[in-house]
Amino acid sequence: MFRRNRADREFRDAQRAGQAVLAMHTELPLPDAPGTHAAPAPAAPESAVVPDFLPADFRAPSRQDVSGFMMRWDLPLVIDGDVHQCHCGAYRNWIVFNMRDDSVWLRCEAGHEAKESRLDTAWYNRNSGPVDRFHPTLDEGLRHLGH
User: Fold this and answer.
1) Where does residue 2 rank: exposed (0-12), middle (13-18), buried (19+ CB within 10 A)?
2) pLDDT (tens digit per residue) in 67-99
3) Using CA atoms, how far apart are residues 47 and 65, in angstroms rounded to an integer?
4) Sign for the pseudo-dihedral over CA of 123, 125, 130, 136
5) CA angle, corner 125, sides to 118 and 85, nearest 5?
6) pLDDT reported for residue 88
């Protein structure tokens, strides 16, 4: 019992000290704030400025830089409780495309493609893994995924 009271008292003392520090900073001008009596900071030489961003070779393309994303879906694709089937009879081994306009397209092994309105970008993001490669053409991406 006494141990808990002591811990509560120490916690309240720490809270009061923190509130006092915050109150002190609201009364005093901040050191970085420009004021009439503050001298301007000396300019850093241009050679000492370090860029904030990675070089262009190390940056991953943004969503607007690519036409879309694709992934393999080897299992039967269940949408709203029904197994999705292509008109050719295929029901597994899909390539799922998530396009820049947030539409989702499915492609079977026979090469038939269809837009699937019941799937969206949120579904794709939940079910896809991290991007492992970027391909300049659709054919190279399909070859990488085994189609």
Assistant:
1) exposed
2) 888 899 999 999 999 999 999 999 999 999 888
3) 31
4) positive
5) 35
6) 92
Instruction: Name which of 67, 84, 87 is nearest 76 in CA terms.
Output: 84
Phi (first) and psi of residue 137, to 5 degrees: -130, 160
60 Cβ contact partners less than 8 Å away, ≥ 6 residues apart: 131, 134
DSSP code per residue over 89-136: S--SSEEEEEETTS-EEEE-TT--EEE-TT--HHHHHHH--------S
- Rounded distance between C-alpha atoms, residue 14 and residue 53, angstroms: 39
* Residue 103: strand pairing partners: none
Q: 24-56: buried (b, 16+ CB within 10 Å) or exposed (e) per residue?
A: eeeeeeeeeeeeeeeeeeeeeeeeeeeeeeeee
Structure token pair of residue 62: 């943004």
Own/partner contacts of 110-116, CB < 8 Å, gap of 24 or more, are 110/86, 111/147, 112/86, 112/87, 112/88, 114/86, 116/79, 116/84
Per-residue tokens: 136? 């300049």
CA atoms of 26 and 117, how far apart (whole Å): 54
